[in-house]
From TrEMBL:
One Gene Ontology cellular component: cytosol
Chain segments annotated as transmembrane: none
One GO MF term attached to the UniProt entry: deaminase activity
Family in the record: Belongs to the RutC family.
InterPro entries the UniProt entry points to: RutC-like_sf, YjgF/YER057c/UK114
SUPFAM superfamilies (UniProt xref): YjgF-like (SSF55298)
Protein name: RidA family protein
Species of provenance: Oceanobacillus piezotolerans
Length: 124
């Protein structure tokens, strides 16, 4: 088993790996809208936060030898189900024809006040 703790300036902030690779599968920990170069928390509209979190997942997958087209499953956590349509529009644009299995989980609030957290499972 291999663990990825840093990808460029993206780093885990706690006792976890950004991703864990087991055999030909990569498991990406939940990602927020954090600038991968400056590590600045990028708060904004749900559409902006969703795109940045997806890009962070993509960056971690690439470091693991995978890519967004190889994502099998994703979980998206949002603070309000009313944001679903806006998130889905960004998600649809990001993935195009690729449609991984997905769960969207409405929660009360997310860490640091972010509007979305996204994790992923992909193959290598």
């Amino acid at each position: 088993m291999k663990k990825i703790f840093e990808v460029g300036n993206l780093k885990s902030n706690g006792h976890y790996a950004l991703a864990t690779i087991h055999q030909d599968t990569v498991y990406v920990s939940g990602q927020f809208s954090i600038d991968p170069e400056t590590r600045e928390k990028k708060f904004g509209r749900i559409e902006e936060e969703t795109l940045q979190a997806l890009k962070n997942v993509e960056k971690i997958l690439e470091a693991a030898g995978s890519n967004k087209e190889q994502i099998l499953r994703m979980t998206l956590y949002i603070p309000d189900v009313k944001l679903w349509d806006k998130v889905d529009a960004v998600y649809r644009n990001f993935f195009g024809e690729h449609k991984p299995a997905r769960t969207v989980v409405p929660t009360n609030e997310l860490h640091f006040g972010f509007k979305i957290e996204i994790d992923a499972i992909a193959y290598i």
